[in-house]
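This section describes the prediction task in plain terms. A model, or a person checking by hand, is given the sequence of a single protein chain and must write out its three-dimensional structure as a string of tokens. No templates, partner chains or ligands are provided. The sample shown here is typical of the held-out split.
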Amino acid sequence: MGTTTAITKWTDFYIDGERYLNVIQGGVNKPEKFTPDIIYNLACMTIEKFFMAYFILIEFLPYNHTLIDLVDSIKEKEYIPEYLEKRLLKMNEYQEICSIETYMRTIPQKEDVSLFIESTVMTKKYIDVLIQKHKE
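The expected answer:
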């Protein structure tokens, strides 16, 4: 894989993550359209985009794209602050949708939204540091 291809791909994921983040931050002011469930799903997609941007940059693929798998995968390459890991694992508890045998979803409530948005912002800041470190 050439450098130009890798840079294009990781930046595409990063830009998507920024766009999703802007959508959920604005969506908080439109609760009639952006329910806690929608914000949760958008936050998870945003977090995934930021993690995948970094993984593509370093040419590494995670086991899967659930939040717990993203956390486990990043720990193979980098240190993840405990406060962020705990938040992401808490978010992961809202659903188990990868297996029919263990399928489970918890519908997020209005009071959960701050966890989702704050965790997404923290993930972006964390990934920003990793990207900068990798570029040096």
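For orientation: The mean pLDDT is 89.
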